Amino acid sequence: MAKRPAEIQATNVKLLEELCQPGDFLTGKIRAALVRETFKATATCPSCRKIQEGRDSVLKRDLWNVVCSGGCTFHEPEECYGLGVVVHALCNLQNLMSEEWYKQAAEHVFKCLSATEKIPDTQADRMARLAEVIAVVGLAVGLRAFYRSLPEGPLEEPPIPAGVEGNPRYTSAAEVFNNLEPREGHGWGVGLKIEDVKPGLMVNGAKFLGEEFSKRKFMAVSPMNKWAPALSTGSNFLRWCSVVYSPIQHGYETPSFLFKKAPGRALNRVGLEDVAAGYTTAVGCSF
Ligand SMILES: [Zn+2]
Questions:
Q1: 215 assigned to some structural domain
Q2: Each residue of 160-201: pLDDT tens digit?
Q3: Cα separation of the two ends of the chain
Q4: How far is the CA of 70 from the centre of ligand 1 (A)?
Q5: Ligand 1 centroid to 48 CA: how many Å?
Q6: Is residue 10 part of a domain?
Q7: How far is ligand 1, taken at its centre, from the CA of residue 152, in Å?
Q8: Quick check: pTM over 0.90?
């Protein structure tokens, strides 16, 4: 295999492995189930498709109820630990989401996970777990889309590994950060400032560096801001992104590759943005 495809394949395989390992708060078993459900349901679930067909009459603030009563079929046992309704909304109905959906999803994830473990009953614990679910599903959607977009060729979709046994890194949000709050005016997700991260926090075997997500702090306007609450999955994303996207250093794309191609790359950053815009348009038309 040529060097560049081999490099991309290796980083995809590694990311898929990481997604099926224990995360910050979720077990490898649950993360692997989320990945499998995402691979199966994305763009194929007839119920989600039906909701998209009637999207003009869907009230975004009501999306949670619409999905719950939509009759989705789940590929994982017990409706993917009860999380299937969250997975389907994330992978198929992102354009219909709202702050209300986000709040209801956080509560639902908390209830589902509480069935098998004792979770501290705080808002930050709810949000942190939802952030990890979103990160895992989002990356699985990206991997799946990558392989579905390729013509028959040397790159084959890697098999999804079984969930790796072992405990997640943390048991409470308090171990990880002091504060996790919505950042007003910049969407309805939660954000994290670097000064709120517990000093000396170790992520993926190394001290967590906030610079990985932002130069100085997790600013609301930084595109990495949305990854901040999913610390280890966000770090995995950055490593992967540096191979498949524009090379990234200290959480920022290297600006010199805006108009110049990075070594071995077919596109510069501007070209990549064109492709991304084309993909978004294609996805918007697929329903
Ligand atoms: Zn569905």
A1: no
A2: 999 999 999 999 999 999 988 876 666 678 888 878 889 889
A3: 35
A4: 7
A5: 4
A6: yes
A7: 28
A8: yes
